[in-house]
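stuck on this chain:
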Amino acid sequence: MLLKNVVAGAGAVAVILCWPLATGQIGQSLYMGAIKNYHSPYMTITNQSFERGYLSSDAVSRIELKDTLKTTFEEEGLPTTWLVKHHIKNGFLGVKSSSELEIDKQVAPLISSIWGENVQPITLVTDSSLTGNTDFTMTINPIDYNQSGVFVKSQAFVLTGSANADGAGDFNYTLPSLDVKTDSGETMQVNAFAGQGSGQMQGNFWIGDQTFKLGKANFASADNQHHVELEGMSVMMKNALSQPKR
Protein backbone atom coordinates (compact mmCIF):
# COMPACT_ATOMS: atom_id res chain seq x y z
CA MET A 1 0.00 0.00 0.00
CA LEU A 2 1.36 3.41 -0.93
CA LEU A 3 1.74 6.03 1.78
CA LYS A 4 -0.88 8.27 0.15
CA ASN A 5 -3.41 5.47 0.60
CA VAL A 6 -2.59 5.30 4.32
CA VAL A 7 -3.09 9.05 4.70
CA ALA A 8 -6.20 8.98 2.51
CA GLY A 9 -7.62 6.05 4.47
CA ALA A 10 -7.07 7.77 7.81
CA GLY A 11 -8.61 10.96 6.46
CA ALA A 12 -11.50 9.06 4.96
CA VAL A 13 -12.77 7.60 8.21
CA ALA A 14 -12.42 11.00 9.86
CA VAL A 15 -14.56 12.63 7.18
CA ILE A 16 -17.16 9.88 7.38
CA LEU A 17 -17.59 10.09 11.15
CA CYS A 18 -17.56 13.89 11.48
CA TRP A 19 -21.04 14.48 10.09
CA PRO A 20 -23.03 14.01 13.36
CA LEU A 21 -21.14 16.85 15.09
CA ALA A 22 -23.49 19.52 13.79
CA THR A 23 -26.69 17.57 14.31
CA GLY A 24 -26.75 16.03 17.77
CA GLN A 25 -28.86 12.97 18.42
CA ILE A 26 -31.83 13.61 20.70
CA GLY A 27 -34.23 10.72 20.31
CA GLN A 28 -35.44 8.96 17.22
CA SER A 29 -37.51 11.80 15.77
CA LEU A 30 -34.65 14.31 15.87
CA TYR A 31 -32.20 11.71 14.58
CA MET A 32 -34.46 11.03 11.60
CA GLY A 33 -35.02 14.76 11.15
CA ALA A 34 -31.30 15.44 11.14
CA ILE A 35 -30.78 12.88 8.39
CA LYS A 36 -33.71 14.21 6.36
CA ASN A 37 -32.46 17.80 6.59
CA TYR A 38 -28.80 16.99 5.96
CA HIS A 39 -27.64 18.37 2.61
CA SER A 40 -24.10 18.21 1.35
CA PRO A 41 -22.42 18.36 -2.08
CA TYR A 42 -20.09 15.57 -0.93
CA MET A 43 -22.25 12.83 0.58
CA THR A 44 -25.77 11.57 1.23
CA ILE A 45 -26.96 10.19 4.59
CA THR A 46 -29.71 7.63 5.03
CA ASN A 47 -30.88 5.52 7.95
CA GLN A 48 -30.03 1.85 7.59
CA SER A 49 -31.80 0.75 10.78
CA PHE A 50 -33.13 2.04 14.10
CA GLU A 51 -33.88 -0.24 17.06
CA ARG A 52 -35.62 1.79 19.72
CA GLY A 53 -35.51 0.72 23.35
CA TYR A 54 -36.82 2.21 26.60
CA LEU A 55 -33.43 3.22 28.00
CA SER A 56 -31.27 3.02 24.88
CA SER A 57 -31.45 2.71 21.12
CA ASP A 58 -29.16 1.49 18.36
CA ALA A 59 -29.03 3.02 14.90
CA VAL A 60 -26.98 2.56 11.75
CA SER A 61 -26.41 5.35 9.25
CA ARG A 62 -25.45 4.71 5.64
CA ILE A 63 -23.13 7.29 4.11
CA GLU A 64 -22.61 7.38 0.36
CA LEU A 65 -20.06 9.70 -1.21
CA LYS A 66 -20.86 11.53 -4.42
CA ASP A 67 -19.39 13.70 -7.18
CA THR A 68 -15.74 14.72 -6.82
CA LEU A 69 -15.26 13.16 -3.37
CA LYS A 70 -16.55 9.82 -4.66
CA THR A 71 -14.20 10.02 -7.64
CA THR A 72 -11.23 10.78 -5.36
CA PHE A 73 -11.98 7.79 -3.14
CA GLU A 74 -12.38 5.52 -6.17
CA GLU A 75 -9.02 6.66 -7.56
CA GLU A 76 -7.37 5.77 -4.22
CA GLY A 77 -9.07 2.37 -4.14
CA LEU A 78 -11.16 3.35 -1.09
CA PRO A 79 -14.80 2.40 -0.44
CA THR A 80 -17.40 5.03 -1.32
CA THR A 81 -20.16 3.65 0.91
CA TRP A 82 -19.69 3.51 4.70
CA LEU A 83 -21.85 2.47 7.65
CA VAL A 84 -21.72 4.23 11.04
CA LYS A 85 -23.16 2.61 14.18
CA HIS A 86 -24.73 4.78 16.92
CA HIS A 87 -25.57 3.64 20.46
CA ILE A 88 -27.92 6.15 22.07
CA LYS A 89 -28.62 6.24 25.82
CA ASN A 90 -31.81 8.02 26.85
CA GLY A 91 -31.57 10.26 29.92
CA PHE A 92 -33.98 12.47 31.83
CA LEU A 93 -32.64 15.78 30.46
CA GLY A 94 -30.93 14.58 27.29
CA VAL A 95 -29.14 11.71 25.65
CA LYS A 96 -25.62 10.43 25.22
CA SER A 97 -24.47 8.65 22.11
CA SER A 98 -21.37 6.90 20.84
CA SER A 99 -20.64 6.39 17.15
CA GLU A 100 -18.11 4.24 15.36
CA LEU A 101 -17.53 2.72 11.95
CA GLU A 102 -19.11 -0.61 11.12
CA ILE A 103 -16.12 -2.56 9.86
CA ASP A 104 -17.31 -5.00 7.20
CA LYS A 105 -15.33 -7.23 4.84
CA GLN A 106 -14.88 -4.38 2.36
CA VAL A 107 -13.14 -1.96 4.74
CA ALA A 108 -11.55 -4.43 7.18
CA PRO A 109 -8.27 -4.84 5.22
CA LEU A 110 -7.83 -1.05 5.01
CA ILE A 111 -8.55 -0.55 8.72
CA SER A 112 -6.35 -3.40 9.94
CA SER A 113 -3.38 -2.30 7.80
CA ILE A 114 -3.45 1.20 9.31
CA TRP A 115 -4.62 0.65 12.90
CA GLY A 116 -4.11 -3.06 13.50
CA GLU A 117 -6.38 -6.07 13.90
CA ASN A 118 -9.65 -5.59 15.81
CA VAL A 119 -9.00 -1.89 16.45
CA GLN A 120 -11.78 0.67 16.04
CA PRO A 121 -10.06 3.57 14.24
CA ILE A 122 -12.30 6.41 15.36
CA THR A 123 -14.92 6.97 18.04
CA LEU A 124 -17.30 9.88 18.49
CA VAL A 125 -19.07 10.49 21.82
CA THR A 126 -21.78 13.13 22.13
CA ASP A 127 -23.74 14.39 25.13
CA SER A 128 -26.85 16.30 24.02
CA SER A 129 -29.37 18.22 26.09
CA LEU A 130 -33.04 18.67 25.27
CA THR A 131 -32.28 22.26 24.23
CA GLY A 132 -30.10 21.02 21.39
CA ASN A 133 -26.70 21.82 22.92
CA THR A 134 -24.16 19.07 22.31
CA ASP A 135 -20.73 18.37 23.78
CA PHE A 136 -18.60 16.01 21.73
CA THR A 137 -15.29 14.16 21.79
CA MET A 138 -13.85 12.57 18.68
CA THR A 139 -10.78 10.36 19.01
CA ILE A 140 -8.67 9.02 16.15
CA ASN A 141 -6.79 6.15 17.73
CA PRO A 142 -3.01 5.80 17.34
CA ILE A 143 -1.79 4.72 13.90
CA ASP A 144 0.99 2.16 13.61
CA TYR A 145 1.57 1.28 9.95
CA ASN A 146 4.88 -0.25 8.80
CA GLN A 147 5.31 -2.02 5.50
CA SER A 148 8.28 -2.30 3.11
CA GLY A 149 10.14 0.57 4.77
CA VAL A 150 7.13 2.89 4.66
CA PHE A 151 5.68 3.81 8.04
CA VAL A 152 3.17 6.11 9.70
CA LYS A 153 3.14 6.23 13.50
CA SER A 154 1.07 8.64 15.56
CA GLN A 155 -0.38 9.12 18.99
CA ALA A 156 -4.11 9.65 19.37
CA PHE A 157 -5.68 12.73 17.80
CA VAL A 158 -8.40 14.10 20.11
CA LEU A 159 -11.00 16.72 19.15
CA THR A 160 -13.36 18.09 21.81
CA GLY A 161 -15.93 20.84 21.64
CA SER A 162 -19.53 21.92 21.87
CA ALA A 163 -22.23 23.04 19.46
CA ASN A 164 -25.71 24.46 19.90
CA ALA A 165 -28.85 23.90 17.85
CA ASP A 166 -28.01 26.86 15.59
CA GLY A 167 -24.61 25.43 14.65
CA ALA A 168 -22.52 27.80 16.79
CA GLY A 169 -19.78 26.28 18.90
CA ASP A 170 -16.14 25.89 19.78
CA PHE A 171 -13.52 23.17 19.58
CA ASN A 172 -10.02 22.15 20.68
CA TYR A 173 -7.76 19.46 19.25
CA THR A 174 -4.37 17.92 20.00
CA LEU A 175 -1.96 15.60 18.19
CA PRO A 176 1.06 14.90 20.41
CA SER A 177 3.21 13.27 17.72
CA LEU A 178 3.25 12.07 14.10
CA ASP A 179 6.16 10.25 12.45
CA VAL A 180 6.12 9.46 8.71
CA LYS A 181 8.50 7.90 6.18
CA THR A 182 7.46 7.70 2.52
CA ASP A 183 8.27 5.00 -0.02
CA SER A 184 10.87 7.38 -1.54
CA GLY A 185 12.68 7.74 1.80
CA GLU A 186 11.44 11.21 2.78
CA THR A 187 10.70 11.69 6.48
CA MET A 188 8.50 13.94 8.59
CA GLN A 189 8.24 14.30 12.36
CA VAL A 190 5.62 16.52 13.98
CA ASN A 191 5.32 17.16 17.72
CA ALA A 192 2.84 19.08 19.91
CA PHE A 193 0.34 20.02 17.21
CA ALA A 194 -2.73 21.68 18.77
CA GLY A 195 -5.47 24.13 17.90
CA GLN A 196 -8.74 25.70 18.88
CA GLY A 197 -11.52 27.76 17.37
CA SER A 198 -15.02 29.14 17.70
CA GLY A 199 -17.64 30.08 15.15
CA GLN A 200 -20.85 28.97 13.49
CA MET A 201 -21.93 26.81 10.58
CA GLN A 202 -23.75 28.80 7.89
CA GLY A 203 -24.96 26.37 5.26
CA ASN A 204 -21.95 24.25 4.28
CA PHE A 205 -19.46 26.91 5.44
CA TRP A 206 -17.87 27.40 8.85
CA ILE A 207 -17.54 31.07 9.81
CA GLY A 208 -15.30 32.01 12.73
CA ASP A 209 -11.78 32.19 14.15
CA GLN A 210 -9.27 29.44 14.70
CA THR A 211 -5.64 29.12 15.70
CA PHE A 212 -3.18 26.27 15.65
CA LYS A 213 0.25 25.84 17.20
CA LEU A 214 3.10 23.54 16.33
CA GLY A 215 5.76 22.66 18.87
CA LYS A 216 8.28 21.26 16.41
CA ALA A 217 8.42 19.71 12.94
CA ASN A 218 11.19 18.22 10.81
CA PHE A 219 11.07 17.43 7.09
CA ALA A 220 13.99 15.74 5.31
CA SER A 221 14.72 14.32 1.86
CA ALA A 222 15.89 10.73 1.45
CA ASP A 223 19.55 11.78 1.13
CA ASN A 224 19.15 14.38 3.92
CA GLN A 225 20.47 17.06 1.56
CA HIS A 226 17.24 19.02 1.90
CA HIS A 227 16.08 19.61 5.46
CA VAL A 228 13.48 21.93 6.95
CA GLU A 229 12.88 22.42 10.68
CA LEU A 230 10.08 24.45 12.26
CA GLU A 231 9.73 25.27 15.93
CA GLY A 232 7.23 27.27 17.93
CA MET A 233 4.97 28.11 14.98
CA SER A 234 1.57 29.71 15.58
CA VAL A 235 -1.04 30.60 12.95
CA MET A 236 -4.36 32.43 13.29
CA MET A 237 -7.12 32.28 10.68
CA LYS A 238 -10.51 33.92 10.29
CA ASN A 239 -13.39 33.10 7.96
CA ALA A 240 -15.96 35.84 7.44
CA LEU A 241 -18.83 36.58 5.06
CA SER A 242 -18.80 39.83 3.14
CA GLN A 243 -21.04 41.52 0.59
CA PRO A 244 -19.54 41.99 -2.89
CA LYS A 245 -18.91 45.57 -3.89
CA ARG A 246 -21.08 46.96 -6.66
